[in-house]
Structure to design on (476 residues):
């Protein structure tokens, strides 16, 4: 009876933390989309809202870290429960990093509105951001539903994001070589593309945690590395 | 008597994990230096050794994660001990990221040896890497000695690294504008500079954890942001 009571208190505490993770995930998803939209529409006000959302995201991570530490200290969870808690902490840490990249993207909007737009790149960047946001949504769903298959699907989709990045990298190189006046803008756009690719890596890391949580094994790291093509570009292969 | 026994077992387990953290830190320090050296001396063999060291670094992180999880599950540590364990996990995670950046730098060495060297940049990159390695050494010493003052010193020194990055960013922009044939090489060098700056951010994050561990408070985030100058550059302020 007493055991059951303790278990249910643990579950309730865990549910509170999971609700916080979902809230944090929702804010991060929104930030990714808004950052890309602010860039495409040259909307500085929208960019500013991403920067203030990042404060809320950071606060949620602090709260989740406090709550998980308290949960471990008070309830001394057994192996399985502990694994869930450690997964939650890692997911929160990955979400915080993705939020940082979105903030950084929004920050560059303020710079890029001062410059001549680079043809077509903004919509490509927005498609890339949209793909990452959808992957994040699925990775969080996979966590809640303990769905290793969905998590594996997210991991595989990261290759599409890597390919989008590689295509943009080539495009920016061409722009810069054709018109040196575009170099500064292209450097910023290239950073945004690279940071979006890194968001994808963090989403993949969340999905890997889910696979580990459900199956007890980390998925094999056999996907091609994200910036291989940019190495090929450098070697003159394209 | 029984309590004392439990405490000493906990301390012994923790010491084992701390020895693993120090080993991991040593490997990461070495990788930072070797990666920068391989770049400057165009030494592909040295670059390759950084890539294999990264495997050992990743394995150490896995080991530390397993050992900390086991320690929490077996010993159900009280608040203070738990804080130490969670700090150790965060330090391991930061070290793993720094190792990844060093590996990425080494990987680009293989690409850059195929291109005409960019005057002077390699030694500047090496000085930057050297500064980050010294900061990391001090951050880990601050952890072992529970020295919040040394940790704060590390946090402040990150500004120097940010300044070195900003100077290099300006230099690369100038090179690219003067000679479009240098664009590809400069893009890679710029990535290396940015990744080294990010290594500094991770070292700072370790130092902040130490401050939190010793004082119970996170240091105020009032340092200027790393890429402010590159924003200024873009706005034509330099």
């Amino acid at each position: 009876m007493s055991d059951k009571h303790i278990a249910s208190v643990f579950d309730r505490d865990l549910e509170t933390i999971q609700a916080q993770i979902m809230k944090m995930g929702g804010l991060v998803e929104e930030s990714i989309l808004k950052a890309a939209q602010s860039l495409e529409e040259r909307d500085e006000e929208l960019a500013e809202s991403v920067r203030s959302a990042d404060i809320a995201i950071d606060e949620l991570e602090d709260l989740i870290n406090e709550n998980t530490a308290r949960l471990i200290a008070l309830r001394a969870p057994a192996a399985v429960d502990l694994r869930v808690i450690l997964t939650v902490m890692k997911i929160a840490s990955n979400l915080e990093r993705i939020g940082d990249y979105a903030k950084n993207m929004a920050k560059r909007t303020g710079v890029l509105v001062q410059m001549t737009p680079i043809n077509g790149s903004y919509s490509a960047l927005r498609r890339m951001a949209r793909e990452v946001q959808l992957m994040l949504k699925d990775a969080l769903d996979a966590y809640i539903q303990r769905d290793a298959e969905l998590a594996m699907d997210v991991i595989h989709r990261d290759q599409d994001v890597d390919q989008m990045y590689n295509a943009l990298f080539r495009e920016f190189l061409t722009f810069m070589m054709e018109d040196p006046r575009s170099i500064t803008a292209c450097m910023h756009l290239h950073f945004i593309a690279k940071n979006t690719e890194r968001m994808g890596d963090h989403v993949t890391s969340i999905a890997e945690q889910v696979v580990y949580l459900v199956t007890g094994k980390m998925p094999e790291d056999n996907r091609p590395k994200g910036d291989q093509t940019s190495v090929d570009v450098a070697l003159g292969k394209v």
Q: What stands out?
A: Chain B touches chain A through 36 residues (CB under 8 Å). The two ends of chain B are 68 Å apart (CA to CA). The mean pLDDT of chain B is 88. The CA atoms of residues 170 and 234 of chain B lie 10 Å apart.
